[in-house]
């Protein structure tokens, strides 16, 4: 059961937990009505179902009118069945006879309906001005039983007694059956404590004193621990200062070296390395000092040779060699190295001293000279892209690659020495000179889309790039063409598939909502009603066994009732998520206000809803789609935004617009990729729901931080 405190609205009482049984002694009907208004106003604002029982001297109209002055939108609460006003004969009498069991069943049934409807609990008032002397013995027993019934439940009960009709003996009986007694003395309401309440306060005072004693003892222990830590920190700082000074002297010996200098242990772990190592490899010095050269740096192909070097060095020999390292960015760095052993005073091996000179540029230059021609030829011929070299002077082909032969169908010998016009390669001959006649421009940055002809007469869709080059002192043009014929066809097929997918997505959304409605109906009609009846029956059984004094069985029955109520709460939450009933009954704005309250209570994020109550309702399919979009947007806020406040606005001005804005961290730093919106599942779902009702979906960053989700649908 929940132990959350609820506002009573009565200043003398303040906040009380669920399961509280109050007693109010009043002098006049005006005092009673004023108190009831504050009591039920707090209940309505706390999402509680309110049941007000008034006697003959207080009219329903009087309570309703006074309550309406304190709660401006009281009409909406009555329409939502959040409050009911009944007479004593409805609550206490069955077939004109006072029947406490009837009252118990009545209250249990009302509580069950309230919880199923999504209320937090039930707030009750009973005006006992109707009570006649002949009913008093049975009613006093009922009050004591009611105190046990209310305890541990989601109910607040306030019993009101007129002082002028209450005899001293009755007042004493009433006081024993209630936890709090409120009475008016002069102009002020005062709280009279029961013996149990006083005892509880004394116990709390004793516990508070014990807690203060333990805190003082723990504080003393912490002070001693802090003093010891302070001494240890002072000593550690002194040692660190000495180490820093030693490190500074050590670094000055090799920090200015242009060669990479390092020390290794027998396994190849780096003991120390100079700043040149960080400059060459791209790693920080801290990262390098945690590495092993064999495992982390040296290219695997050189491991065998370096193992031999380490072996010879440990035997006392100086070694000269070449080795390759992997830099942090993936580059291979070539070194020319000298390694010598470091030994202790007794001649034992201590570590290895290595001096490495970077010869990468020299190696690359040597290799570039020998590989340049071979690399160009291989790249040109083997490229899957159509490559041709055209002499600028006469526009004739100097060379064509294998892709040209494969795509256009001409052999190299047939193409070389001829022009594109002569081979009829272009569907529009006027395009041909623009590709190669480039006396001023060095390079085409963006490709030209042209249509070409194969030898067999087939039409090709091509993207052509040109670049000015020089070969053997002669000006030429390198023409590269990408065959996008298959891609064009694939895009057309993809567009058709995309439209089909959108239609399927909209159909799936409709099916999903239909299944949710069916599931919600089944849960409400079967599980919800069964749980309500089960809870009422268990409550009746618990009351019977409580009167017999069987505390163990009563405890087990209370556990069962708690389990039934928690299950009912869970089913109510599931029903609300599956298909909020107020969406059909009261419309989108009321459903959004309800869900915003539920979301705020669950997450702690403040949500405000603004809208026009008089706005014309959109079709049911559009309402449920907009509601689901708002749900998904709030779920994204809870998961990702770290927001504190969310604003939901529902407006209409020629079209219905729903916006959900938060003050969180905003969109991902890269909300778009390749110019296309982000396609996370939640965003896709919201976009598809908007499209399914003919709407427009937008998600954007708010100035100053946060995110806004906006959906617009046409009206009419």
Architecture overview:
It is built from 22 helices and 28 strands. Strand 22, helix 21 and strand 23 form a beta-alpha-beta unit. Helix 5 packs antiparallel against helix 17 and helix 17 runs antiparallel to helix 18. The radius of gyration is 43 Å and the shape is flat. About 1% of the residues have low confidence.
Low-confidence stretches: 670-678
Q: Using only CA atoms, what is the Rg?
A: 43 Å
Q: Largest beta sheet, briefly?
A: 7 strands, mixed
Mean pLDDT over all positions: 81
Molecular shape: flat
Q: Which structural category fits the helices and strands?
A: alpha+beta
Which range does the strand content fall in?
A: 15-25%
Distance between the termini: 49 Å
Strand order of the largest sheet: 5-4-8-9-3-10-11
Which bin fits the share of residues in helices? 40-55%
Number of strands: 28
**Count of alpha/pi helices:** 22
Keyword list:
716 residues, alpha+beta, single chain, seven-stranded mixed β-sheet, flat, five-stranded antiparallel β-sheet
């Amino acid at each position: 059961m929940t132990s959350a405190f609820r506002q009573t609205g009565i200043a003398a009482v303040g906040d009380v937990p669920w399961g509280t049984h109050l007693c109010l002694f009043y002098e006049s009907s005006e005092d009673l009505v004023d108190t009831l208004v504050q009591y039920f106003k707090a209940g309505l604002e706390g999402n509680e179902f309110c049941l007000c029982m008034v006697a003959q001297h207080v009219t329903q109209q009087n309570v309703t009118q006074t309550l309406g002055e304190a709660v401006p939108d009281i009409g909406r609460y009555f329409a939502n069945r959040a409050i009911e006003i009944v007479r004593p004969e409805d609550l206490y009498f069955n077939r004109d006879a006072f029947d406490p069991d009837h009252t118990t069943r009545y209250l249990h049934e009302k509580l069950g309906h309230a919880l199923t409807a999504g209320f937090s609990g039930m707030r009750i008032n009973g005006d006992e001005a109707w009570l006649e002397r002949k009913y008093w013995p049975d009613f006093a027993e009922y009050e004591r039983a009611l105190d046990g019934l209310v305890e541990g439940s989601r109910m607040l009960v306030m019993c009101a007694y007129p002082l002028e009709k209450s005899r001293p003996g009755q007042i004493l009986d009433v006081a024993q059956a209630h936890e709090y007694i409120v009475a008016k003395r002069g102009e002020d309401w005062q709280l009279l404590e029961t013996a149990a309440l006083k005892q509880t306060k004394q116990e709390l005072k004793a516990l508070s004193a014990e807690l203060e004693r333990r805190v003082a003892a723990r504080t003393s222990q912490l002070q001693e621990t802090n003093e010891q830590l302070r001494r240890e920190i002072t000593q550690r700082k002194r040692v660190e200062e000495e180490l820093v000074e030693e490190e500074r002297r050590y670094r000055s010996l090799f920090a200015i070296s242009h060669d990479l200098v390092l020390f290794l242990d027998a396994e190849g772990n780096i003991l120390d390395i100079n700043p040149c190592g960080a400059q060459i490899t791209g790693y920080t010095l801290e990262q390098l000092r945690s590495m092993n050269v064999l495992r982390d740096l040296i290219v695997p192909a050189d491991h065998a040779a370096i193992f031999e070097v380490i072996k010879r060095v440990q035997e006392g020999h100086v070694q000269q060699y070449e080795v390759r390292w992997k830099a942090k960015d993936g580059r291979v760095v070539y070194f020319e190295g000298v390694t010598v052993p470091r030994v202790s005073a007794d001649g034992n091996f201590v570590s290895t001293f290595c001096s490495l000179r970077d010869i990468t540029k020299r190696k690359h230059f040597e290799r570039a000279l020998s590989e340049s021609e071979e690399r160009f030829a291989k790249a040109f011929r083997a490229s899957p892209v159509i490559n041709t070299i055209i002499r600028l002077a006469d526009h004739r082909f100097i060379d064509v690659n294998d892709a040209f032969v494969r795509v256009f169908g001409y052999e190299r010998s047939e193409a070389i020495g001829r022009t594109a016009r002569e081979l009829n390669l272009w569907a529009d001959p006027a395009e041909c000179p623009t590709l190669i006649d480039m006396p001023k421009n060095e390079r085409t940055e963006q490709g030209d889309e042209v249509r070409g002809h194969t030898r067999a007469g087939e039409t090709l869709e091509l993207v052509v790039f040109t670049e000015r080059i020089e070969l053997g002192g002669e000006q030429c043009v390198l023409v590269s063409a990408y065959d996008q014929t298959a891609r064009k066809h694939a895009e057309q097929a993809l567009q058709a598939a995309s439209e089909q997918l959108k239609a399927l997505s909209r159909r799936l959304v409709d099916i999903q909502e239909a299944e949710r409605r069916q599931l919600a109906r089944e849960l409400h009609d079967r599980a919800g009603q069964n749980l309500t009846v089960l809870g009422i029956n268990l409550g009746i059984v618990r009351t019977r066994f409580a009167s017999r004094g069987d505390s163990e069985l009563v405890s087990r029955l209370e556990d069962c009732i708690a389990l039934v109520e928690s299950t009912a709460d869970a089913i109510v939450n599931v029903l609300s998520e599956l298909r909020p009933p107020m969406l059909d009954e009261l419309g989108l704005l009321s459903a959004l206000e309800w869900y915003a309250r539920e979301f705020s209570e669950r997450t702690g994020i403040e949500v405000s809803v603004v809208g026009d109550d008089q706005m014309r309702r959109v079709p049911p399919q559009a309402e449920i789609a907009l509601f689901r979009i708002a749900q998904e947007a709030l779920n994204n806020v809870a998961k990702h935004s770290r927001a504190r406040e969310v604003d939901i606005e529902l407006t209409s001005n020629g079209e219905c617009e729903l916006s959900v804005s938060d003050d969180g961290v905003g969109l991902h730093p890269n909300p778009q990729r390749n110019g296309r919106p982000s396609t996370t599942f939640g965003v896709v779902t919201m976009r598809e729901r908007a499209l399914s009702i003919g709407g427009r979906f937008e998600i954007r960053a708010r100035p100053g931080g946060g995110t806004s989700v906006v959906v617009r649908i046409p009206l009419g």
